[in-house]
Amino acid sequence: MSTAVRKLVHLIGFSALLIALAAALNFAVDPLQLLRPARFYQPMYSNDTRMQNAGLIRSEDFDTVFMGTSLAIHFRQSDIDRILGVRSLKLAMTGSNSREQSFVLAAALARGPSRIIWQMDDWIFRDAPDIDHNDSFPADLYRKNAKGVAGYLLSGAMARESLWTLARAAPPLRNLATRLTTDSLMKFAIPRVDDIHVLAPDFDVAQDYNAARARASFAYLTDPSRSAYLAEGYAFEAMVRNFERDAVDLIARHPDVAFDIYFPPYSILQFVALRDASPATLKIVYDFTGYVSRRLATFPNARLHDFRGARQITHDLANYRDAIHHSPAIDLKVLSYLADGTYLVDRTAPTAPLRWLQAQVEAYRPETLAQ
User: 3-state SS of the chain: helix, strand, coil percent to 5?
Assistant: First the structure.
């Protein structure tokens, strides 16, 4: 054997050994808790919810799942538990579509929860790639199939997280490793499940959520050079098809699970922007709302809560950072309304809240913004 071939064999052998060591390390530590709950170390968590949720579903105990988009991402599990009297698992994902949400919920339902709380709006039902063609979604981690587990165990990035986890667990290194554990350095940097994607205690809410920002968002949306954005992805037939596939099918397949679905309290400005800049899109929103409301009313295990007509919230622009996203104080109001059923939609009149919303939107005048 020549020297060059010998060196190549040694290189291949050394590389194989490194890969084997990384796989053994990841299997032993399991920082995502995909294979088992943490045993000999204090677990840490990631704000990469599409990845982290796969581990949470496997490792956490829960009877209720809380799903949604960025409109639900800042809720605290402890608040959900306290106000609704449940043991919840928050699986909300920023920017998620109905395909992603339905897939994650199906994985969570395999654990046997009795209740799903689902923040739902028309936007999530736009057309989107199927799960296996969504490059940002690790579907095989949820399936826990050979491809998913192998990719997880053989990941060099995950091995680095495993080493850091061991450093935090070792008494001589614990303090230093803990101080150095930040989002900029490590993927798993959050000490508690309750802290995943919540606002920091020192976050300046008034600075980020105020009427000036809401008004600026309205001006942006209604600017003729940008208002075409409002219609993007809105196609009634496609939205209905996706709703049937991703929501109705899931509800129908789990008749023993209670589904509490809610439409979040967008500010009135979102609908007024549609009214003034894209009326055809507003008609699609109304038509789709009517379809969803009537369809959900036919399922005894589904309840719909519509907060879009809650004018004490939606007309107070100080509650918003833009035309849609509401402040943490409104998170708590939403939970209290879910608990007492204040905005529960009557099955015998499923489109009544829609008519109330339409009346508010028709009556609202932009000159109000100057006040």
Answer: 55, 10, 35
